């Protein structure tokens, strides 16, 4: 096996204290998507949207990687091939754990984006309505996260990874949001093996050839240890 492509979702960061979206008490049970995670919501009430992301930005500052993030970093370091992490998460716990080959398809909380000229820069902890772009000076700074109805980042690169990977693994995602929810089928059509590692079966569990259910901090290190042991025994 020469290449493993891993999709992660909010569930991999749950045991680091960051909320998921659709579990009981999840983020979308406390906020309406159309209010805080759409371009229309931002135009309607930018203060509300900045407040939502400022609170999450403060939260991720205190979060630390868990054993699942660390296991994926060890896999990237020790696997005799390529390991790509495609994450839907806007926290940077994969990087904090040591992963380097990470694609943030939904952006990052610590990023700011100019809606006018497209310039990106490190976001202040507290972003405010009317903050100006350091390049074009327009008062159009927004969080550099992908909202519903917007195109996720790195999609050409991600499709290419899925078409050349030997194994596609999905960790901590409910399989509710496209295009990520289509990744398993896309990889399988290209000949990849597929594995779901999740607390519960996702809504697209049927797309996976194999699955293990449990807390990511337990089942991900177990799986990584098996992959590296199999590699060592040739
Ligand atoms: N270990 C493993 N899996 C877990 C754990 C855990 N400790 N806790 C929760 N999970 C699983 C849940 O069973 C669920 O399937 O993580 C998944 C979280 O699903 P969602 O809350 O829907 O989050 P996610 O799939 O990442 O959402 C995808 O939707 O709202 C958008 O942009 C947002 O990136 C997000 C996207």
TrEMBL record:
Cofactor requirement: Zn(2+)
Reactions catalysed, as given in the entry: N(6)-acetyl-L-lysyl-[protein] + NAD(+) + H2O = 2''-O-acetyl-ADP-D-ribose + nicotinamide + L-lysyl-[protein]; N(6)-succinyl-L-lysyl-[protein] + NAD(+) + H2O = 2''-O-succinyl-ADP-D-ribose + nicotinamide + L-lysyl-[protein]
Gene3D superfamilies: SIR2/SIRT2 'Small Domain, TPP-binding domain
Entry's Gene Ontology cellular component terms: cytoplasm
Biological role stated in the UniProt entry: NAD-dependent lysine deacetylase and desuccinylase that specifically removes acetyl and succinyl groups on target proteins. Modulates the activities of several proteins which are inactive in their acylated form.
Encoding gene, per UniProt annotation: cobB
Keyword Zinc included in the entry's annotation: yes
This protein's name: NAD-dependent protein deacylase
Annotated residues for binding of NAD(+): 9-28, 88-91, 172-174, 198-200, 216
Lineage of origin: Bacteria, Pseudomonadati, Pseudomonadota, Alphaproteobacteria, Rhodobacterales
Annotated active site: 106 (proton acceptor)
């Amino acid at each position: 096996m020469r290449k493993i492509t891993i999709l992660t979702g909010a569930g991999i960061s749950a045991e680091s204290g960051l909320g998921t979206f659709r579990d009981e008490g999840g983020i979308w049970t406390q906020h309406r998507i159309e209010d805080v995670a759409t371009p229309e919501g931002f135009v309607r009430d930018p203060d509300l949207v900045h407040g939502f992301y400022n609170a999450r930005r403060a939260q991720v500052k205190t979060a630390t990687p868990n054993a699942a993030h660390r296991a994926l970093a060890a896999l990237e370091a020790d696997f005799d091939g390529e390991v790509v992490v495609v994450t839907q998460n806007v926290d940077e716990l994969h990087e904090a754990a040591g992963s380097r080959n990470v694609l943030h398809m939904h952006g990052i909380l610590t990023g700011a984006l100019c809606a006018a000229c497209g310039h990106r820069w490190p976001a202040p902890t507290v972003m405010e309505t009317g903050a100006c772009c350091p390049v074009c000076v327009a008062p159009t700074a927004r969080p550099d996260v992908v909202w519903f109805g917007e195109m996720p980042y790195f999609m050409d690169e991600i499709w290419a990874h899925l078409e050349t990977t030997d194994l596609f693994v999905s960790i901590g995602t409910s399989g509710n949001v496209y295009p990520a929810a289509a990744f398993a089928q896309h990889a399988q059509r290209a000949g990849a093996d597929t594995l779901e590692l999740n607390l519960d079966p996702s809504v697209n569990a049927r797309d996976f050839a194999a699955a293990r259910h449990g807390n990511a901090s337990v089942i991900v290190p177990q799986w990584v240890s098996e992959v590296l042991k199999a590699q060592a025994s040739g």
